[in-house]
Inverse folding.
């Protein structure tokens, strides 16, 4: 996030896109509710009629996968009506002309046809966004989990740059992270392209520095991202896998292929707190401590490094992941200092990453959570980025063209399937399903279907259907709902009995490799003689 | 600009001291900044004042009646007294009234959550024989949800819970209903909370000054909050990074419940969602892995010592690398693990096994 969570309540305009905020990020939603109570205007762009649309001034109910059309049309309104921040653009950005040209090819009337959002709505929202100084954009997986995920993000950032909504309190561009420490994992260099602190892994100088610090030559071969790893596994290029706290058999798309490939691997290590589905393929399973049993830091969406503290002992022989990893490294012949506490590991990382150099456990204990960059021990925590100019020097406009989703509906698969999360569960739900109380509130997976589609197929509310895509079929209970658009269906991905990743495609975004969980083509087949039962839809249901 | 905080230096005089305040601030907010303590029962910085408990009354010169500091706006030159005998008499009287309305015995009252009423009564004293004052509030049948219990015999009708549910959570699942002595907190048609718009944020429990709203599981566990140790940590679910307090029964090595730090102190401003608040029994779940496992060739997994398991780990990885090259190895790290652990994971991939094949699930 370029801004901080507590700034949200002071925003005057909020553009929330691809984020079911009240269910996925309830605390952020509370901030947004505060802003709206204060008089801020709210525009929600989402294919579903999610709770946030209840308090929104505009709901842009776009067809899944048409985000670039919508966003470029907003840009069209801004440049054709002269609402762009001309001086700011000249001072802070590069390549605006190309984006202007592209935008002019996306008129709102045509956008209305492609996206289903009325042209007038697009105009109003674009104008309001451009004209409000404290206007923030908030997005999550609904934007990134597409084959065009990177394009979507560029299209958004073009809007931010052309209106100069950057480096201002309560304005800016704010991805809301889905998991507790996604930010921190990226910060720490758990990505093929970066060493800790976003230092480019393909830069020989950076590699040299780490080679020296760690005392080992660094490979010059570019690493694979997750999506590429899954493919390389199927192709037989990967032979061994070390899985830390992740259950790829539950979380990765097109799981049949993943499972087949896992079977072919020479060697698999799984290190986790539960015996997860991936353990079935493991040669070694290492029992790990959970967050309540260890020390360390998590970094949240607004780049805030905060402490994790040990409250209880781990069960049985389980050990903290950091202890296990140090031990494996030592046994693999890489000498390690005799670290007794993660604060020492953090210090090693900070010493190698200018962005975190001024952060330490000791300082967090004294000052509370710290937002990076903090480049030295005297530097203060950083509330919002791009203050007084764009961080990378000049903000780069990147013109993007609409590309249809990888898979489009056709006669055989006439519906668009999207997946997402609900308030009551979390990802693979290995933790939330084990909560008796939550399981009671929302016990099983379901599929939301628009009443019109249901009528056509002769499907009743609460009955079971098979959801079928080119990759697989799963059975789920139907929830009739006007939250979804006509011809669109939606499923939560938390439930092992209703494994949506048998259905989703593994077509990934070209840059990040993020799978297209949000769009694939599907059809419904009623299960004969299924007895309807009530399903609990979550916090909010627009069922008639 | 409407929302910028203009710094105009204005002063009120509280107990003889000049205290600066910003336009629009209440006496309570001004007093807070100067560390002048004014006790409150129905005040919360996140909510519009209700003026319901009368605990915060202070003397304001020029006004015959005492005024509630939580809602009375500070004005330049105003002279305020918070320590007079009259103020003190009111506090004792109000506390007596509220005590009469709840469970008298503090130990019984605090079976789970601490009672702010009893705490204030101990600090400020009470008036006369309050135990004979009034009858306790009548109960309403409890509902079947497994999360939150409402116990009317403890409620003092401060309306913190209903205001929180309206103004912060914005779902209005609970309301004040009935009149006079029959007023109580209920849901639409007295339905179970899980059948209402309630999102199970647990905020009503956190703001309740009496323990009338209480977590069922912790109540069942049977150890009062004051006997538990609080460990401040970061929630392990979404990316907001809420600060939470794990309430631990240290002797039993058991996390009993989660509470939120006070408003205004952390990124979550004292709020939590259903997952942070209630989804913590996975910590002690019987399915947790407790022993290393290794697979015998062609067979199933069996228990092993750490030594054997770690040895197998290293040998397995090294054998694959020797046969197929370093880039035949892949390391998938976790956004569920700490920053330090992610650092070590990528260091292991890059330094111990010579490959940049390191990533995590969910790159967002
Ligand atoms: S748990 Fe939250 S949503 Fe439910 S009644 Fe309490 S305050 Fe309202
Ligand atoms: S239940 Fe608690 S918070 Fe709600 S009105 Fe009663 S005493 Fe106040
Ligand atoms: S705190 Fe002021 S009336 Fe209750």
């Amino acid at each position: 996030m370029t801004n901080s969570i507590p700034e949200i309540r002071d925003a005057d305009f909020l553009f929330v896109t691809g984020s079911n905020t009240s269910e996925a990020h309830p605390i952020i939603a509370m901030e947004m509710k505060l802003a709206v109570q204060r008089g801020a205007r709210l525009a929600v762009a989402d294919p579903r009629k999610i709770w946030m649309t209840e308090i929104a001034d505009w709901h842009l109910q776009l067809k899944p996968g048409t985000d670039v059309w919508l966003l470029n049309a907003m840009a069209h309104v801004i440049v054709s009506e002269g609402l762009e921040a001309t001086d700011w653009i000249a001072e802070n950005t590069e390549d605006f002309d190309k984006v202007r040209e592209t935008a002019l090819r996306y008129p709102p009337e045509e956008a209305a046809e492609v996206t289903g959002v009325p042209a007038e709505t697009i105009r109003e929202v674009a104008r309001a966004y451009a004209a409000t100084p404290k206007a923030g954009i908030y997005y999550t997986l609904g934007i990134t989990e597409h084959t065009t995920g990177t394009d979507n993000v560029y299209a958004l950032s073009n809007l931010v740059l052309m209106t100069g909504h950057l480096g201002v309190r309560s304005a800016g561009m704010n991805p809301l992270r889905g998991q507790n420490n996604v930010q921190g994992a990226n910060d720490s260099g758990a990505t093929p392209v970066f060493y800790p602190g976003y230092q480019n892994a393909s830069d020989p100088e950076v590699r040299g520095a780490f080679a020296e610090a760690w005392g080992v030559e660094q490979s010059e071969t570019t690493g694979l991202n997750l999506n590429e790893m899954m493919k390389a596994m199927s192709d037989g290029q990967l032979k061994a896998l070390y899985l830390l706290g992740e259950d790829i058999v539950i979380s990765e798309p097109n799981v049949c292929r993943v499972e087949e490939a896992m079977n072919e691997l020479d060697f698999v290590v799984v290190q986790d707190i539960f015996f997860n589905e991936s353990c079935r393929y493991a040669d070694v399973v290492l029992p790990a401590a959970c967050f309540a049993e260890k020390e360390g830091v998590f970094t949240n969406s607004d780049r805030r490094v905060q402490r994790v503290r040990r409250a209880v002992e781990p069960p049985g022989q389980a050990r903290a992941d950091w202890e296990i990893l140090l031990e494996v490294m030592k046994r693999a012949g890489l000498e390690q200092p005799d670290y007794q506490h993660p604060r020492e590991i953090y210090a090693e990382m900070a010493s190698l990453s200018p962005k975190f150099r001024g952060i330490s456990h000791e300082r967090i204990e004294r000052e509370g959570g710290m937002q990076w960059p903090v480049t030295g021990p005297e530097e203060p925590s950083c509330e919002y980025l791009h203050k007084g100019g764009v961080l990378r020097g000049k903000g780069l406009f990147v013109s993007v063209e609409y590309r249809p989703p990888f898979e489009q509906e056709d006669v055989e698969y006439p519906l668009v399937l999207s997946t997402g999360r609900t308030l009551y569960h979390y990802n693979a739900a290995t933790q939330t399903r084990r909560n008796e109380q939550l399981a009671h509130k929302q016990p099983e997976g379901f599929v939301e279907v628009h009443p019109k589609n249901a009528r056509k197929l002769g499907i009743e509310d609460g009955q079971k259907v098979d959801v079928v895509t080119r990759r697989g079929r799963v059975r789920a209970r139907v929830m009739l709902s006007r939250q979804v658009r006509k011809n669109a269906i939606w499923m939560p991905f938390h439930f092992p009995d209703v494994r949506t990743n048998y259905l989703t495609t593994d077509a990934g975004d070209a840059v990040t490799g993020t799978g297209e969980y949000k769009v694939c083509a599907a059809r419904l087949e009623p299960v004969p003689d299924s007895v309807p039962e009530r399903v609990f839809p979550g916090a909010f249901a627009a069922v008639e | 600009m409407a929302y910028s905080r203009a710094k105009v230096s204005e002063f009120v005089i509280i107990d003889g001291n000049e205290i600066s305040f910003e336009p629009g601030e209440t006496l309570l907010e001004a007093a807070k900044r100067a560390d002048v303590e004014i006790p409150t029962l129905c005040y919360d910085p996140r909510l519009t004042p209700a003026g319901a408990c009368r605990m915060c009354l202070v003397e304001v010169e020029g006004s015959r009646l005492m005024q509630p500091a939580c809602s009375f706006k500070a004005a330049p030159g105003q002279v305020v007294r918070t320590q007079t005998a009259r103020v003190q008499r009111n506090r004792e009287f109000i506390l007596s009234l509220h005590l009469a309305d709840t469970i008298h015995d503090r130990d019984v009252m605090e079976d789970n959550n601490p009672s702010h009423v009893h705490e204030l009564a101990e600090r400020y004293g009470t008036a006369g024989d309050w135990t004979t004052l009034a009858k306790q509030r009548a109960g309403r049948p409890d509902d079947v949800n497994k999360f939150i219990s409402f116990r009317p015999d403890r409620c003092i009708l401060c309306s913190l819970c209903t205001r929180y549910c309206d103004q912060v959570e914005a779902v209005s699942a609970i309301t004040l209903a009935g009149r006079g002595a029959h007023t109580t907190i209920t849901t639409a048609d007295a339905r179970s909370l899980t059948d209402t718009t309630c999102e199970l944020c647990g905020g009503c429990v956190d703001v309740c000054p009496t323990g009338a709203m209480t977590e069922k599981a912790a109540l069942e566990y049977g150890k009062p909050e004051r006997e538990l140790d609080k460990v401040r940590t970061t929630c392990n679910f979404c990316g907001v990074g809420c600060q939470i307090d794990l309430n631990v029964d240290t002797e039993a090595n058991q996390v009993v419940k989660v509470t939120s730090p006070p408003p205004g102190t952390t990124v979550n401003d004292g709020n939590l969602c259903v997952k942070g608040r209630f989804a913590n029994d996975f910590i002690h779940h019987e399915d947790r892995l407790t022993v290393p496992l290794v697979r015998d060739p062609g067979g199933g997994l069996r228990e092993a010592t750490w030594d054997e398991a770690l040895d197998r780990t290293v040998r397995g990885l090294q054998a694959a690398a020797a046969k197929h090259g370093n880039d035949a190895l892949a390391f998938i790290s976790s956004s569920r693990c700490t920053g330090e652990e992610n650092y070590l994971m990528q260091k292991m991939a890059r330094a111990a096994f010579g490959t940049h094949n390191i990533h995590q699930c969910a790159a967002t």
Observations:
- Residues 332 and 359 of chain B are 5 Å apart (CA to CA).
- The first helix of chain B runs from residue 27 to 33.
- Chain B touches chain A through 114 residues (CB under 8 Å).
